[in-house]
Write a structure and sequence with these properties.
Shape: elongated
Number of strands: 0
Distance between the termini: 54 Å
Order of helices and strands: HHHH
Helix content: over 70%
Structural class: mainly alpha
Strand content: under 5%
Largest sheet: none
Radius of gyration: 22 Å
Amino acid sequence: MMLERVYLFYRDGFRSMRLGKTLWKIILIKLFILFAVIKWLFFPDYLHTRFATDEERANHVLENLIPSQNP
């Protein structure tokens, strides 16, 4: 109920604004930049570039997830 009221508040607010559509476009462009471009630049696909097979990738992940028992 509360989420619906908040959603309606923002929806009606943007609808009645003169620049509402432009603001939504800016918001969507910023979200695209945040999730697509920044991910592409700062978080490369480490496993696919370093290991050739799925078995090698799985072994690497297991070695790093499970702590070794040797002190």
